[in-house]
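Q: Structure tokens for this one, please.
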Amino acid sequence: MKKSNFVRRLDPLGRIVLPKSFRDSLDISIKDDIEIFMDGTSIVVSKHEPRCVFCGETEGIRSYKDQMVCLECHNDLVGMK
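A: Here is the predicted structure, written as tokens:
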């Protein structure tokens, strides 16, 4: 993968613009949710994918009592009733 370096200046509200080539590579569109977190001294930005709160699965996600849960964990929860 080709390394790309860009220097961006924070605006007065602490915002930056992500380069279009980065957004295109990660399939990030306007109004998409993104995740931002710290990893040591770095800031990591990625496209948000809903995950199961129990196992971290990203496939077959559904809402259960205001939490995102995969089908398998959902069935386990329903079976516990």
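A few notes: The beta strands are 34-39, 42-47, 61-64, 67-70. DSSP finds two helices and four strands in the chain.
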